[in-house]
Amino acid sequence: MPAASAAVSSDLSPAVVPADFAARVVGWQRVHGRHDLPWQNTRDPYRIWLSEIMLQQTQVSAVIEYFQRFIGRLPTVAALAEASADEVMALWAGLGYYSRARNLHRCAKAVMSEHGGVFPTDPEVLVTLPGIGRSTAAAVAAFSAGVRSPILDGNVKRVFARFFGIHGHPGVKAVENRMWQLADAVLPAKGPAQAEDMVSYTQGVMDLGATVCSRGKPACLAAAASCPLASDCVARREGLTGVLPTPKPRAAIPERSTVMLLVRRGREVLLALRPDSGIWGGLWSLPEMPVDTVPFDAELAEDAALERAREFGNPSTANMVGELTHVFTHFRLLIRAIRVDVAGLTARDAANGPALRWLSLDDLDAVGTPAPVRKLLEAQAQGGLF
DNA sequence: AATGCGGGGAG
DNA sequence: CTCCCAGCATT
């Protein structure tokens, strides 16, 4: 299993970067790729740029209508530059990421004032314009002028992660850097066919990610012939399409804590019935105490436990017997357990009520208890801590 | 290096 | 419900 360091190695040996990578993608695109999207079949950098901005973090299906409407109303960069901010924002409304629209407007004005109204096709120039980053600059340059410059969007990251077996979330800088390195290394060869190949390759590597090397069930699993890269794709060979690309690490789930009472009367322990709604609804658990000191103070808690246990009998001793953590889907619960030994019965022996009962430690299977409570009870049954 | 930005679709 | 989508700008 490749270590994390493998994902960021700088090794670009030919063995892992097939010389015909781009050629395979190009050939596949011309037969199986998408050819009829509204921003294809043009070399107009304005239309290509507009589509690329709209497509940032936005799916193709959502963009199509917005693109048609926008072009219908503002068909040239000059028209966009002259339009009011209100009109631009109205055309964008509903697409999200509205800074894209503000930058779009600023960019059009900059093209008019700084580039004589001629949209640049040099990636190094494009990337200086508002809202155009490295990948968008490369896409505009490739589609409008066949410039040999790599894109790296979500589709490409997925294809690369799988084909090269790159572990680690692509949002991590080192992983992304590695992918940029590869994106440059696999580009179509320089030469007479470069411009047309760049158009097909740039479109193809995105089409591949969108239609074949999809996130859910990549088509290669059903039919290897559906992907031109299947024959030496690391993820396909090693059965890793389900784990690559590495998903974004989940946010740390919050931790809550509680104190549970192990109220002992000889071999018996007191259980409390949970309400039907909420966590562990309807299960028998242990009586709990509010935790009102931060940080937790064991001696205070033991004193409070002694006081609390007067409801259940005559308490003699209270001792922390341990703690354990139980992980739920949306939070982590730290459970501290305090054993309180009681003797005799009081007038308020609430165990006679419906929500409390005594249970023999020799008969744990008699009731349904949450897994962590079961662990506490089993430890009690064996007489020790846990 | 990590976050905010956003509405929508897929699983 | 979570994750992701033809990313970029800002901190």
TrEMBL record:
<dbReference type="InterPro" id="IPR003265">
    <property type="entry name" value="HhH-GPD_domain"/>
</dbReference>
<keyword id="KW-0227">DNA damage</keyword>
<keyword id="KW-0378">Hydrolase</keyword>
<comment type="function">
    <text>Adenine glycosylase active on G-A mispairs. MutY also corrects error-prone DNA synthesis past GO lesions which are due to the oxidatively damaged form of guanine: 7,8-dihydro-8-oxoguanine (8-oxo-dGTP).</text>
</comment>
<dbReference type="GO" id="GO:0051539">
    <property type="term" value="F:4 iron, 4 sulfur cluster binding"/>
</dbReference>
<dbReference type="InterPro" id="IPR005760">
    <property type="entry name" value="A/G_AdeGlyc_MutY"/>
</dbReference>
<dbReference type="GO" id="GO:0000701">
    <property type="term" value="F:purine-specific mismatch base pair DNA N-glycosylase activity"/>
</dbReference>
<dbReference type="InterPro" id="IPR000445">
    <property type="entry name" value="HhH_motif"/>
</dbReference>
<dbReference type="Pfam" id="PF00633">
    <property type="entry name" value="HHH"/>
</dbReference>
<keyword id="KW-0411">Iron-sulfur</keyword>
<dbReference type="GO" id="GO:0034039">
    <property type="term" value="F:8-oxo-7,8-dihydroguanine DNA N-glycosylase activity"/>
</dbReference>
<dbReference type="InterPro" id="IPR023170">
    <property type="entry name" value="HhH_base_excis_C"/>
</dbReference>
<dbReference type="Pfam" id="PF14815">
    <property type="entry name" value="NUDIX_4"/>
</dbReference>
<dbReference type="InterPro" id="IPR015797">
    <property type="entry name" value="NUDIX_hydrolase-like_dom_sf"/>
</dbReference>
<dbReference type="InterPro" id="IPR029119">
    <property type="entry name" value="MutY_C"/>
</dbReference>
<dbReference type="GO" id="GO:0035485">
    <property type="term" value="F:adenine/guanine mispair binding"/>
</dbReference>
<dbReference type="GO" id="GO:0006284">
    <property type="term" value="P:base-excision repair"/>
</dbReference>
<dbReference type="GO" id="GO:0006298">
    <property type="term" value="P:mismatch repair"/>
</dbReference>
<feature type="domain" description="HhH-GPD">
    <location>
        <begin position="54"/>
        <end position="211"/>
    </location>
</feature>
<dbReference type="InterPro" id="IPR044298">
    <property type="entry name" value="MIG/MutY"/>
</dbReference>
<keyword id="KW-0479">Metal-binding</keyword>
<protein>
    <recommendedName>
        <fullName>Adenine DNA glycosylase</fullName>
        <ecNumber>3.2.2.31</ecNumber>
    </recommendedName>
</protein>
<comment type="similarity">
    <text>Belongs to the Nth/MutY family.</text>
</comment>
<keyword id="KW-0326">Glycosidase</keyword>
<keyword id="KW-0408">Iron</keyword>
<dbReference type="Pfam" id="PF00730">
    <property type="entry name" value="HhH-GPD"/>
</dbReference>
<keyword id="KW-0004">4Fe-4S</keyword>
<dbReference type="GO" id="GO:0046872">
    <property type="term" value="F:metal ion binding"/>
</dbReference>
<dbReference type="GO" id="GO:0032357">
    <property type="term" value="F:oxidized purine DNA binding"/>
</dbReference>
<dbReference type="InterPro" id="IPR011257">
    <property type="entry name" value="DNA_glycosylase"/>
</dbReference>
<keyword id="KW-0234">DNA repair</keyword>
